[in-house]
Amino acid sequence: MPLFEWSDDYSVGVAGMDRHHQKIFDMLNRLHAAMLQGKAVDMIGNIIRELLDYTKYHFGEEEKLMERVNYVGLAEQKNAHGKFISLIEDYKDQADKGMGAFLSSGVSTLLTDWLKSHIGVMDKKYQKAMNAEGIR
Ligand SMILES: [Fe+2]
After folding, report:
1. pTM of the model
2. Which of 46, 68, 100, 135 is the most buried (most CB within 10 A)?
3. pLDDT for the residue 2
4. CA 77 / ligand 1 centre spacing (Å)
């Protein structure tokens, strides 16, 4: 399981959002480190709860910025954010039921895909609209 190092390839051109995304990278790296040490079962529930709280906050802030600049991709983004939250909520329900031992690799895969395909592709598209309004 590789460590996910932040690079400019992931920058969305808005410093505040890059910081938020780096926190999500950090959560994935902590999960990977715990998996390598065989400790993921103990902490997966906490990671999932932290991820759920943080992504709700992050998506809210990101959508506010998109609204401010009348971003054309807002509806598509809200849809993707809603789907991601409901997947994490499903994992949280399973963790609450004591099924944590089975969740680490699914959460890891979900997050890895999210970093690559959402942040690395969909989020990068809002840079132009944000920067044009002085948000950078
Ligand atoms: Fe984002």
Report:
1. 0.94
2. 100
3. 63
4. 9
- Ligand 1 ion: residues within 5 Å (CB): 62, 123
The string of pLDDT tens digits covering residues 47-72 is: 999 999 999 999 999 999 999 999 99
For residue 83, the enclosing domain spans 42-132
13 Ramachandran zone, left/alpha/beta (phi>0; psi -120 to 50)? left
Compute the distance from residue 7 Cα to the ligand 1 centre, in Å. 15
CA of 53 from ligand 1 middle (Å) equals: 14
CATH number, domain containing residue 83: 1.20.120.50
CA of 97 to the centre of ligand 1 (A): 29
Number of structural domains found in the chain: 1
